[in-house]
Amino acid sequence: xxxxxxxPSALLSSLPNLGLLLTTGTRNAxxxxxxxxxxGITVTGTTGAGSSRPTPTLDNVPPPPPPGFxxxxxxxxxxxxxxxxxxxxxxxxxxxGGWQTGFNTGLAGKVLGIVGLGRLGVRVAKIGLAFGxxxxxxxTSLTQESADAQAQAAGVPAGAFRAxxxxxxxxxxxxxxxxxxxxxxxxxxxxxxxxxxxxxSALLVNTARAGLIDEEALLAVMREGAIGGVGLDVWWxxxxxxxxxxxxxxxxxxxxxxxxxxxxxxxxxxxxxxRWYAEQAENxxxxxxxxxxxxxMV
Length: 298
Known about the structure:
Helix content is about 35%, strand content about 10%. It has helices at about 10-15, 35-40, 70-85, 85-95, 120-130, 145-155, 165-170, 190-195, 215-225, 245-250, 270-290; strands at about 20, 40-45, 110-115, 135-140, 160-165, 175-180, 205, 230, 260. It is an alpha/beta fold and about 300 residues long.
């Protein structure tokens, strides 16, 4: 299960026969782990490494990717490039019989802003360097010293990632990508003030969690066309409802900002899904056999 399936204390308490609860990934904010622990419910996660045992019922399980690569980084750059190169617009142009109706956005020499220079933020930033972009980063605890350490650990020179203030990051970024864990301190970290500080040509991409952005503020800014384009892989309601303005508004038309949206695909990659399944199947077998489970959360 993922965070779309909450298990609060009241629900856990109403399931007296529940002994094992499995989730994918290494955290799940929708599970009340304290309640599960007090009720004696074992909760396990997955790392993506795959099963430690043969999995005869699952064919062609690919090995984990090399260190430093992951599906979320790929999804982030897919959205950035789709916006910069107008992939949706140009696909529609070809289907309608048109040709070259607008300009693409060159990335070389532009500023890539990273909100949250952790594992994923660093990977996205490193690719930005390959496109000839200048990387700036911000989080509440980021210093230039820690940014330099992150850069060197990623195999790029100290100074490749420049730590800046939140204000400077939003004012100067041509492309801005979010990579924070959602919590009480980070919820709504991108609000109206931050969005209105951005360049009208800027591109905003979020593959982390929707709650990092104030939804109403983003809608207002996009309806005015106050930023160039937005790429979203995460949403405030998942799946996006039939009557949602994200589905009904004509984004990219009549002065509105461009929207490229994907249905939370940042982790839905065949290899990792198969490895997660294999890990969970192994934990079920271990739990039934009374053996120690792997990746236990409580």
